[in-house]
Amino acid sequence: MADRKTGGGQQPDAKGEASADIKTDASAKMERDSFVHTFFKKGAEFTDELLRENDRLRKRLFDLESENAALRTHLASDEAIRELLRKIEYLEREKEQLLSHVREAERNSSHLFTRYSEVEEELSNLAHLYVASYQLHSTLHLREVLRHLKELLTQLVGSRAHAFYLKDGTELVPIASDGIELSRLPRLAIHAGSRKEEDRGSRDRTGDLIERVFMTGVAHIEEGELSSAPRDQPAACVPMRIDDAVVGVIVIYSLLDQKEQFLPVDYALFKMLGAHAATALMGALLFANSNGRFPGLEAIDAITRNVGDDLK
């Protein structure tokens, strides 16, 4: 009875143990299921997180590739700009060189043009001097010689009033004038002490100037602006020579309004007139004294003999 009791008492324990085991297995299964569920859940979450991170990295990679492409484009653009700048600098240097060549060519052209103008002016002056010399010696008639002298002084020098003085003994005698009455021109004594004291004190220094030019043989020609020249004396006095002897004076009292100053061609013309006007006037006077007759053969033979004797 006791065993049955015991046995009877043991069966409920086995059932209890079996029940406990069952409970334990169920609990373990639940825990395992819970663990598996949690594990898969966390795996899924981790997978989702990995997928999101992968997407983020892909997006970041795409952005970086875009930035890289943009940078490459920008670098290419900068290089193109630098190349353009180098090209511009090269073109600027080439432009400066071309401008320098152009300026040098302009200076050379200006120099050549100036030289051409000077040569042209010199040729014109020589032509005027040739014409003047030719006209002076183209005739022995006093009227024609005086007309040529008047034309030369008026057209080439711009004279408004002038006169010609020739030496006659101890005086300078006005023989012709233009623009001023010949009767108003005085004779001028040329020996010392002959001038009247009242004339020497006169404000009109014309007589003194003509006398001085004749005595010294040095021409008086106003320099610079003629508008500021003294009004009480001629603008120019030019000695007339035959060989080395001064035989008279060309006096230019006034000039045309458009004549502002004497130019180099005027000085050359004065020099030519000083050398040729006297011979032309003297030849015309001698021809007039001979009543227009040319020397005969006897006179020519005598002159030829005298010249031959002088050359021996």
From TrEMBL:
Pfam family, one: GAF_3
Location of the GAF domain: 141-291
Region feature (Disordered): 1-28
Basic and acidic residues composition bias: residue spans: 14-28
Keyword Transmembrane helix recorded: no
Protein's UniProt keywords contain Coiled coil: yes
Coiled coil segments of this chain: 47-122
Keyword terms of this UniProt record: Coiled coil
Superkingdom of the organism of origin: Bacteria
InterPro entries listed in its UniProt record: GAF, GAF-like_dom_sf
Descriptive protein name: GAF domain-containing protein
